[in-house]
Design a protein that fits this description.
Blueprint (H helix, E strand, L loop, with lengths): L1 H26 L1 E9 L4 E10 L15 E7 L4 E7 L4 E3 L9 E3 L3 E8 L4 E8 L2 E7 L46 E2 L2 E2 L12 H25 L1
Antiparallel strand pairs: 1-2, 1-7, 3-4, 3-8, 5-6, 8-9, 10-11
Length: 225
């Protein structure tokens, strides 16, 4: 009896520790941005979403930085900004004939920003002005802003997109009136609509409820003996 009770409360204790860690890892997301430069031209090479927390910014030697990268929202508000310099010198083996330093033809700089669901645009600038503007609205989650965004449709955001409106998704129920189902005046067959995948959070908490339920059942069953 005491042994079963001890196991039960140990399991509950471990779950209470694991849940916050799981949620923190799942919720915290960052933009992982790579800036590439060859000394003449600089550009935003890639943008990815990753789990994690952006590092604290350290401004070396008090320098402001020749370059800056800003993240803007759909209404033009600057959400994040980081100033930085690009170095083309790499330290190598001190036994090398070049004295342990090598000048690179091109280099990459990683920049990490906290994820913002309304972030839609990155702007790379140098001391002369804007170098590049990159649209990242495909990474945004703007459902609910009453605007049918390019990456939204009535299938995944009915709050913003009308079922029979133009949203690049042919709705089977409205295929006679949905402009996305009509090409050159001919009504097209609507694609098969797959059910949205079950949220990993729903699966996790569903499994948690089952585990707690089984543990509780075992506990009370042993208690009655």
């Amino acid at each position: 009896m005491k042994s079963t009770k001890k196991i039960y409360f140990t399991v509950i204790f471990l779950l209470l520790i694991i849940i916050p860690l799981f949620m923190a890892q799942a919720v915290n997301q960052i933009y992982f941005i790579v800036i590439q430069s060859d000394g003449t031209n600089s550009r935003i090479e890639s943008v990815q979403l990753k789990a994690g927390t952006p590092p604290a910014l350290v401004n070396e030697n008090g320098q402001e930085g020749k370059y800056s990268l800003s993240l803007f929202s759909s209404n033009g508000k600057e959400l994040e900004k980081q100033k930085f310099n690009i170095s083309y010198v790499m330290t190598i083996d001190s036994n090398n004939t070049t004295g342990g330093m090598e000048t690179l033809a091109q280099t990459s700089v990683p920049i990490m920003f906290q994820y913002h669901k309304n972030g839609v645009k990155l702007v790379l600038s140098d001391d002369k002005g804007i170098v590049e503007t990159k649209d990242i609205s495909y990474l945004a989650d703007l459902c609910g802003d009453e605007i049918c965004q390019p990456n939204e449709s009535s299938f995944d955001c009915s709050l913003d997109c009308s079922a029979d409106g133009e949203d690049d998704f042919c709705n089977e129920e409205f295929k006679k009136t949905d402009p996305d189902c009509i090409v050159a005046g001919v009504i097209q067959e609507a694609p098969t609509q797959h059910k949205a995948p079950v949220s990993k959070y729903l699966l996790f908490f569903g499994g948690l409820i089952i585990i707690v339920g089984i543990g509780t059942g075992i506990y009370w069953n042993e208690k009655k003996k």
